[in-house]
Amino acid sequence: MGIISVTNLKKVYGDVKAVDDISFDVRSGEVFGFLGPNGAGKTSTINMMTGLSRPTGGQIYIDGIDAVKDVKKVQRIIGVIPDENNLYDEMNGFENLCFCASLYGMRKEEREKRAAELLEQFNLTKAANRPFKTYSKGMKRKLTIAAGIIHNPKILFLDEPTTGIDVESAIQIRELILDLKKQGKTIFVTTHYIEEAERICDRIAFIVNGRIVRTGLITELMSDSGKEYKIQLKLDRITKEIGEELENTIKNCSAEIIDDNLCLITSKERLELYPVIELLKNKGISVYEAKEIKSTLEEVFVKITDIKASKLNDKGGVAG
Amino acid sequence: MKSLIAFWNILKKDIRNYYLKPPNISWGIIFPLSWTLMQLIRSQGNIEISALLPGLMSMSVLFGTTSMLAVTITFERKGRSFDRLLLAPINISTLVFAKILGAVLFGIINGFIPVVFAAFFINLSGINWGLLFVAVFLMAVTSALLGLLIAISAKEVFEAQTFSNFFRFPMLFLCGLFIPVDKLPALIKPISFLLPLTYGADILNSTITGNSLFNATFNTFVMLIFSLLLFHLCHRNIKKKWIL
């Protein structure tokens, strides 16, 4: 059993199945990504795991504690960073952090020390005495994350951590997530940015229409889809006829003419380059470059879910 | 101890962020003052201030607590900062106590503003201050819980204000604040007895004017029952409506 264990989790709102019988485990110390388009059920799942919503059915265990029955016990060891910044506009950065720390019973000296440390870590010390409402989007996001980790939680839930913020802040936040991972925290992150998931997650679950369609290590997911081998050739010229001849000569391959100089050969088996180059040489075509093309997570996602990757990013914001 | 730290800091935050804001302080002063003036002008100066005082005090407590709590909580829910409180390891009862205590204190202070004004015009030496305080406290508690109950049902700030007025304005006329309950039409009278403010106002009437429907012990007991009932309703509805 993982540090987070979810079994047959369901959430129904009226006739709508927001989360439809999902099960997954998150291992201690890993960054687990929940990747899916808007409305896939990512936030509903986080809300049930953190106590903001009650499951219609199923079980959630966090660090061995039943999160459905004993959610207040679970809330002591988790930190939650919601998809929207939810600090107090009138209070300044320092006051916001101290207040959030007090909700976990931290004493005055302890919370003030921790708040100052986090402001320093997030490069917000200069803005510490400014009201939260005057912060930029990126600063607000960073302070919201700082508030979520002020009590030094063992497990972190981040809902769309970089949505709607500038590239620089998004990069800083991703670095911070990886830093937290190095500190031994277990991180559950939802995102609709494929590149983000690829950069920060160890394992990923693809969620579509409330159902998990695939879970696995990024490398596993890529190699699953990588049962096709692709070689891109840069040539001095290429024609449709030569492409057809390549397909006829080399077993189980397809040749796609990208432009006058580029050709993509796809095969179910590992391609031997020599016969290809020899054929082209016999046709008087010079080969300048042969490059293996690996599948991206985006291609894997599209293949598994049948959802266009562009649909994932319709919430706006910068993937960075 | 941890719960106590959280409780104290929620209370402190609410007092600083909402109750000590100049518009709210001025509301606490202007509202009872304008009602007193309205009554004085209407009666062309022939009014007994001691007869007016229980009604004014009750009204100040009612309006101060219900609207403040209903509006501030709906505001926090809308801005999602309330989620932060629900995500913290604090039980719902502690959270309810912390949220209503600010409103209760605000209501008590509001309730005593008409007393301060009245002290310039009438002799208040015969008043049982202990009993008066108990009545104001219990009225503030029940009104704050009523405000919380409204906040649980409202999604927008304007909804909270509308719901508050839907309850509050009828209470002005049904709870014996300005029209004695025994002079209300027989059909309406039972509704008065279903409202906690009737019993609070009755204690104030008994200690300020000496006229009352019930004895103070009975009134206090009924107010306590109303407080427990409203607390239970708030607790149940928060779990049902906020943790979906």
Could you explain how this protein is built, in words?
The complex is a heterodimer of chains A (320) and B (244). Helices cover 37% and strands 27% of the residues of chain A. With 320 residues, chain A is an alpha/beta fold. The two termini of chain A are 34 Å apart. Mean pLDDT of chain A is 87; it is low at 315-320. Chain B is mainly α. Chain B has 10 helices and no strands. The longest helix of chain B has 30 residues, at 49-78. Chain B is globular and about 55 Å long. Chain A binds chain B through residues 13, 50-54, 72-73, 75-76, 80, 82, 84, 86-91, 99-100, 102-107, 147, and chain B through 1-3, 5-6, 8-10, 13, 17, 79-81, 83-91, 243-244.
Radius of gyration of chain B: 18 Å
Low-confidence stretches of chain B: none
Amino-to-carboxy terminus distance of chain B: 29 Å
- The proportion of residues forming helix of chain B, as a percent range, comes to over 70%
Q: Give the CATH class of the largest domain in chain A.
A: Alpha Beta
- Counted by DSSP, the helix tally of chain B is 10
Mean pLDDT of chain B: 85
The SSE order of chain A reads EEEHEEHEHHHEHEHEEHEHEEHEHH
Provide the β-strand percentage band of chain A: 25-35%
Largest sheet of chain B: none
Helicity range of chain A: 25-40%
Please write out the topology.
The complex is a heterodimer of chains A (320) and B (244).
Chain A: E1 4-13, E2 16-26, E3 31-35, H1 42-50, E4 57-62, E5 65-66, H2 71-77, E6 78-81, H3 93-102, H4 108-121, H5 137-149, E7 155-159, H6 167-182, E8 186-191, H7 194-200, E9 203-208, E10 211-217, H8 218-225, E11 229-235, H9 240-249, E12 253-257, E13 262-267, H10 273-282, E14 287-293, H11 297-305, H12 309-312
Helix pairs in contact in A: 3-4, 3-5, 8-11
Chain B: H1 2-19, H2 22-42, H3 49-78, H4 81-87, H5 92-118, H6 129-153, H7 157-174, H8 189-192, H9 196-208, H10 216-241
Helix pairs in contact in B: 1-5, 2-3, 2-5, 3-5, 3-6, 3-7, 3-9, 5-6, 6-9, 6-10, 9-10
